Amino acid sequence: MNETRHRVLDALSDGPVSGPELAEELDISRSAVWKHVEALREAGFDIASDDAGYSLAAVPEFGGEAVEYGLDAPFEVEYHDSIPSTNARARDLAAAGAEDVVVLADEQTGGRGRLDREWSSPSGGVWLSILFRPDVPMAQAPAFTLAASVAAARAAREVGVDAGIKWPNDVLVESDGDERKLVGILTEMEGEADRASWIIVGIGVNANVDPEDLPAEANPTSLSAELGDPVDRRVFTQRLLELFEELRRDPETAVAEWREYATTLGKRVRVETPDGVVEGEAVAVEFPGGLVVDTGDERVTVSAGDCDHLRPL
Ligand code: BT5
């Protein structure tokens, strides 16, 4: 949303305000005011008008403008009802030089997980990718994945779903040893070793979707299934972005907070890494995100891989 439209919206939310008053306040023509009001109505804002002027009656349920409205984080939000993959779109935007942009979709038709796996993304989810350009070496990028999982777990807890994190990037709801997958995160990046050029953190939250519509082998769950009611996706998305914004400024704290939510620490794990399988007890997570596994013989730090929680011996 452009700057002037933001200001029109802010003025309307403090309204009623008349067209001429608005034009004067924002130093634009009356017809420009009219165009902004119409564009906002088209985006789903309910703008009442009576003798006293215009006022904001209701905010749209979901969408780019809806999420940007009142968002306490410096992201522009590009919304799609349906798109193949928000990460793929964010890569195109990165190639075009963009930054601090969020691509958000109601549905993805070609959602991707790690290692080219599929990410099922029916309508009703929160499928988004955050594109940013932090001044950090590439090796620190895993800290942003952990930051995203902390933000997602916290946002889920704020709506009443007791989420935990399985190293490195799965946000799960656990009960009686049963782990149900709520969120998946896919981080992509490009740059030189000493400085990332861009990082894209893709976050897929099963918000208001029926777990029956998701691949059963992943034992999926959703916010609505856990709560018995749909969540307000606009507010949830805003909190997710605001929490991520705080954590990305302070990756060391993000890693510390990750430990608080971790379900992996203290468990026996089996991690499939690009260099082979590591099995043992997960004893620590080190900045920027490596998992320390005590195999009995030695302590090994793994920085990437698929992690399974094993039953205690
Ligand atoms: C992930 O991969 O968990 C990362 C998923 C990232 C998705 C987001 S959505 C927005 C952005 N745009 C994209 O295209 N991607 C990102 P991984 O750890 O590889 O897990 C993939 C596995 O999870 C699949 O093989 C399935 O078994 C399972 N799965 C697929 N869809 C699921 C869902 N909606 N909920 C739970 N599990 C799912």
TrEMBL record:
Q: Which GO terms describe its biological process?
A: regulation of DNA-templated transcription
Q: PROSITE patterns of this UniProt entry?
A: BPL_LPL_CATALYTIC (PS51733)
Query: What's the Enzyme Commission number for this chain?
Result: 6.3.4.15
| GO MF annotations in UniProt | biotin--[biotin carboxyl-carrier protein] ligase activity
Task: Give, as one word, the top-level EC class.
Answer: ligase
UniProt keywords, alphabetically: Ligase
Q: Which InterPro entries match?
A: aa-tRNA-synth_II/BPL/LPL, ArsR-like_HTH, Bifunct_BirA, Biotin_CoA_COase_ligase, BPL_C, BPL_LPL_catalytic, HTH_11, WH-like_DNA-bd_sf
Q: Where is the BPL/LPL catalytic domain?
A: 62-252
HAMAP family attached to this UniProt entry: Bifunct_BirA
Q: Which NCBIfam families match?
A: birA_ligase
Query: What protein name applies here?
Result: Biotin--[acetyl-CoA-carboxylase] ligase
Q: Which organism is it from?
A: Haloarcula nitratireducens
